[in-house]
Amino acid sequence: MRSDIEIAQSVETEPISLVAKKCSINDEYLVPYGSNKAKVRLNFLDGKELKGKLILVTAITPTPAGEGKTTTSVGLADGLSRIGKNVCVALREPSLGPVFGIKGGAAGGGYAQVVPMEDINLHFTGDFHAIGAANNLLCAMVDNHIHQGNELNIDPKRIIIRRAVDMNDRFLRQIVGGLGARANGNVRQDGFDITVASEVMAVLCLATSIENLKERLGNIIIGYTYNNDPIKASDLHAEGAMTALLRDALMPNLVQTLEGTPAFVHGGPFANIAHGCNSVMATRMALSTADYVVTEAGFGADLGAEKFLDIKCKAAHLVPDAVIIVATIRALKMHGGLNKDELKQENLSALKKGMPNLLQHVENIRKVFELNCAVAINRFPSDTENEIALVKEECENMGVKAILSEVWEKGGEGGIELAEETVKLCDMPSDFNFAYDESDSLEDKIYKISTKIYHADGVTYSPEAKRELNKLQKAGYGNLPVCMAKTQYSFSDNPKLLGTPRDFKINVSQVKISAGAGFVVALTGDIMTMPGLPKKPNAESIDVDSTGKITGLF
Q1: How many whole angstroms separate alpha carbon 87 and alpha carbon 293?
Q2: Considering just the CA atoms, what is the radius of gyration of the chain in Å?
Q3: In the 8-state DSSP scheme, what is residue 297?
Q4: Would the N or C end of the chain have less CB density within 10 A of its end CB?
Q5: Mean pLDDT per 10-residue run, the chain (554 residues)?
Q6: 190 with 140: CB under 8 angstroms?
Q7: Is 103 a catalytic residue?
């Protein structure tokens, strides 16, 4: 069996100018990065109508067995193309952290990939490096301001912005800087977040223009004074230089699937600690060029889909026309109590026990957000006909259709049935609703997400989180949406509680404002904004031969 990278490297890509013409993008709007990828100038959107139907691909609660959201998204787009639809796919860029860690990249798999997969999974067009540089420039300006006399009266112990690097590095979670000579600055405790969790990433993903980007960057709160007054990036006059670093990064990236379907790949992942969606600019470009746009949201529907709907759709005035929930029989059997080494054997009892996880995600999409959805069964070779029939029957009993997706093995051909069902869903009426009202208090928003989406009994707060929540409410930030930072492995904040746990509370340990991004972050359980590498990281398997050909990248 060929690896993903071997499959990707075996396909000859089309020149990016030809891919662009499929979505009516002329060469004048392209900034080529080699022959098979390009950025698209922002003025391409001038005067364009958002005509496309928006299809959100999400998933069940993830497990080590894998779910395949990106693979399904790519295969669905290729399937729509095969049935004659004008389609684009809009995906998120991979982070180097998972690429070299344990989860892997985000270019799809098998015969449902976006290419060039090596570039996309590594440096791509440099967007993440630009985001990290802009974030760290702001941090440097904060510490320099304090070193140079601290005219703004910044309290060094109340700086909330952290430095960022796009790598899983637990060593940098908590550090002490400024050691040595006085010229090295004031000694203080600091730390790093992974770049995709930085507020600058969220700002770039939600920005709608250069002017809006600059305004959002200026609104980032870096910390507080000794008098408890907030200090913004604009108080340090940092937003202009940060925007200059991000000017090119704001332009969406255009690539293609293995079958030549146009793909906009732009913006950050990590829906467990960030909002986990691709950029508003990329989604709008896709919607302005295609009749159908397939996009994805990170991790399970309780995280990525909730944030896509409650944060991105509200900010960008988007309404999805259909939702596809990806499930694998392997993962459902893990939710039913099996270990990873037991998944290749048929086990209808474990599968039936794990099915409520899928059905709860379906219920949330249909009853909380009131959207039409279908289930995509992402097939693995070990899946049996009896197991597939059980999933279809359980879904049918709930009134939702489950379709077998074989895009990993067959590409777009294996996604034709899913594509046909998706078109039907897009033509059905729906009454999209948010999980909470904008007028709700921050505490009420957290409560509604926790009880309606996670099915928790309630919410508890650390004293620090409670104080910060009350302060933000009084400061006028109560109208902002909430970005929940929670483990991706459970509906609860305990990663060990698989399936559909009950009789639990969500424990909010910390609350922080992301005023530039336009949301409040609630950190729950033991969630961390800087992951670590596993005992045997993927980086150990990656290599380059004498011709420059990369191997071992999945």
Answers
A1: 6
A2: 23
A3: B
A4: N
A5: 87 96 96 96 96 97 89 98 98 91 81 95 95 98 97 96 95 94 92 94 96 98 96 98 98 98 92 89 97 95 97 96 97 95 95 98 98 97 96 96 97 98 96 96 98 98 96 95 96 96 97 96 94 90 91 82
A6: no
A7: yes
The answer to whether residues 283 and 16 touch, using CB atoms and an 8 Å cutoff, is no
Of residues 129, 71, 81, 128, the one with CA closest to residue 105: 71
Segment holding 363, helix H or strand E? helix 348-363
Let me know if 264 is a catalytic residue: no
Tell me if residue 505 is catalytic: no
Of 128, 264, 308, 380, which is the active-site residue? Answer: 380
Closest by alpha carbon to 298, among 106, 126, 450, 120?
A: 106
C-alpha 414/C-alpha 405 separation (Å) is 6
CB-based contacts of 535: which residues, under 8 Å, 6+ apart?
Answer: none
Q: Quick check: is 299 catalytic?
A: yes
Query: Is residue 71 flagged as an active site residue?
Result: yes
Q: 279 phi and psi, to 5 degrees?
A: -70, 150
Contact between 211 and 202 under an 8 Å Cβ cutoff? The reply is: no
Give dist(CA 149, CA 155) in Å, integer.
12
Q: Which is the catalytic residue, given 22, 39, 53, 69?
A: 69
Q: How far is Cα 338 from Cα 301, in angstroms, rounded to an integer?
A: 22
Residue 175 CA to residue 402 CA, distance in Å, equals 49
> Which one is catalytic: 299, 308, 369, 504?
299
Distances (CA, A) of 199 to 135, 260, 273, 363, 470: 8, 34, 11, 31, 21
Q: What global pTM score does this model have?
A: 0.95
Cβ contact 362:376 at 8 Å: no
Separation CA 434–CA 206 (nearest Å): 18
- Residue ranges of alpha helices (H) inside 64-168 are 69-82, 96-100, 117-121, 127-147
Q: What beta strand segments (E) does 360-494 contain?
A: 373-378, 402-405, 458-461, 482-485
At residue 502, what is the residue type? R
Catalytic residue among 70, 71, 261, 524, which?
71
CA distance 67 to 298: 11
Verify whether residue 271 is a known catalytic residue.
yes
User: Does the active-site annotation cover 408?
Assistant: yes
**Closest-CA residue to 261 (of 70, 80, 396):** 80
Among residues 90, 107, 271, 376, the one annotated as catalytic is 271
CA atoms within 13 Å, Cβ hemisphere of 55: 33
Name the residue with tokens 């990663």.
495
Residue 92: active-site member: yes
Interaxial angle between packed helices 127-147 and 199-206, expressed in degrees from 0 to 180 and rounded to the nearest 10: 130
Q: Which of 408, 491, 504, 519 is catalytic?
A: 408
